C-alpha cells in the first residue's frame, strides 16, 4: 500500500497497514507533527488534511487514506518559507506547550481554504473541536485573522 503524504507517494510497510493513519504517520513514516491526544478523534491534536478536509488521523484507518492526498503540518512550508498560517502563529505568539498546535494549524488551513475571510464565529466554530488547555484562544483567533490578511 502507498499513501500520498505531502505530495509524495510513501510506501507503507505491511505490518503498519491495519493501524490508524496517525500511527502510520508517526511510527512508520517519522512524521511526528500530528500528536496522539485522546485516540478517539475528539481533541484535534492529530488533525491532518485528507482530500483537503480536516481529519482526525487517530480515528482513520490508514487504508482509508490510500489513494487520497494527505497533508500534514510538515508539508505546509515551502523550502525555507513558512506557510502563512505558521508564520501568523509565530507572529501572534500562539504556541505555549505546543501539543495542540499542529492540529490547530491544519484546522485553520482548511478553514481559510474554504472561507478566506472568516468571521470570529466561523473561526470559533471551525476550531471548536481543537482542545487547548494553555488558554491561547484569543491569540489563535488573531493569528487566523492575520493569516487571512485581516487586521488582527
Automatic annotation (TrEMBL):
It comes from the Bacteria. InterPro entries: 2Fe-2S-bd, 2Fe-2S-bd_dom_sf, 2Fe-2S_ferredoxin-like_sf, 2Fe-2S_ferredoxin-type, 2Fe2S_fd_BS, Beta-grasp_dom_sf, Diverse_Oxidoreductases. Its EC number is 1.3.99.16. GO terms for molecular function: 2 iron, 2 sulfur cluster binding; isoquinoline 1-oxidoreductase activity; metal ion binding. Keywords: 2Fe-2S, Iron, Iron-sulfur, Metal-binding, Oxidoreductase. Signal peptide: none annotated. Gene3D superfamilies: 3.10.20.30, [2Fe-2S]-binding domain. It is an enzyme of class 1 (oxidoreductase). CDD domains: fer2. Residues 1-76 form the 2Fe-2S ferredoxin-type domain. This is Isoquinoline 1-oxidoreductase, alpha subunit. It comes from Piscinibacter sakaiensis.
